[in-house]
Amino acid sequence: MSRIPHEVIHDILLQLPVKSLVRFRSLSKPICSLIDGQDFINLHLNHSITAKSNHSIILKEWDLFAVDFDALSDAVEVKQHPLYSGGGTEVIAGYVYYGFGYDSYGDDYKVVRMAHFVREDGGGDGGGLGCERGYGVFAGHALHWIVPQRRQLGIRDCVLGFDIRDDKFFELPQPDYENKGMNFQVDVGVLEGNLCVMCNYEHVCVEVWVMKEYGVKESWCKMFSVHAIKWIGAFMFLRPLVYSKGGDMVLLEVNGEKLLWYDWKTKHAKVVRVRGGPRSFGSEMYVESLIRINDGDRIGWKKQQELDEEEEEEEEKRKTNRNKR
User: Fold this and answer.
1) For 272-297, what is each residue's pLDDT tens digit?
2) 3-class state of residue 152 by DSSP
3) In the list 25, 99, 129, 178, which could disulfide-bond 143, CB 3.0-4.6 Å?
């Protein structure tokens, strides 16, 4: 290993999956120090995102399943963790509005939760925003939900944002939809890191718009339209998940029942058949990383790295002293 240039080792490790990197921490202290370093952790995550490596699709019904993005064949059940309050005396039993995102100001990861809850003594009540979807979509520096129109109150559909840097709500401008005279529903998602909205003209088509420059109304761009497919029926729900590695197709979740590869140039669609997965599901893209979410673990990991470096320095001093003798 000592004969291999450090830069070559660094580049090789960047290509590896997380499980392999965790195992390779035991190879040597220098390798462990490299893998545990924050610079390497960030570079590995960025490489995974740009190269579309270490990607999986999470399918959720009552249970969680993971599907490797490269294979898109078999679903593997994933262990779930119950959601408790900080004090451990309340268990979330009702509908939850939630979101997860990265606070670039504080260099921290945050979970946002708004819920109807039930205490163990039967008390407690929670309010809600009336959002279409429970989970918030993270893009830019905010989580996003669609608040549906309420004609009796004169309220139209709006894209509601929550800035996780300063914990403030705001309304985001929407595209100038092309068929305003038709009835349609709006949903929100994220595609290649950019906020997107899906404009669903039921029984006709779904338009997918992407905000190229976050927060700028004029940057909305209609990327493609998916027209009704006879063998699927009406699109009650359609959401883009990710582009193919070649960039010529997009993976779609349709009606919470199917995954489709869609070529927007030829307008052809192909069903992705996943073995062992649920019949109905919600789906999310997932990128494996070395980042540790729990602050205590992150601090402990860094502290352990410092201790390892100190121990390595002490060992070098002992070797030097022995050589002098």
Assistant:
1) 999 998 888 889 888 999 987 654 44
2) helix
3) 99
